[in-house]
Specification:
The chain is mainly α. It has one domain. The protein contains four helices and no strands. The protein starts with 8 loop residues before the first helix and ends with a helix. Bound molecules: iron/sulfur cluster. The site of iron/sulfur cluster has 15 residues, from α2 and α3.
Length: 88
Amino acid sequence: MNASSVSTIADLVHADGWMGQALCAETAPEAFFPEKSGSSRQAKRVCRSCEVRAECLAYALENHERFGVRGGLSERERRPLLLIADAA
Ligand code: SF4
């Protein structure tokens, strides 16, 4: 799967490896893509129980995933980590 073709959590959970263990596969995907004024609380609660949270966050950072909650962090929360990763 090409990273640029990943557009939804559903795309991720159907892929091989850690993505197949994604807990978000068992939940409503829209919770991971809240409206601008919406809450990401529900998605983050799921992420806290997800066994592949670290792998998910690493993937999101490596692939500059810009949208949605990934690895328990929103896009805004991942932004500073991206700056650090890009500087390394
Ligand atoms: S950490 Fe969250 S977004 Fe990532 S796979 Fe797990 S439930 Fe899905």
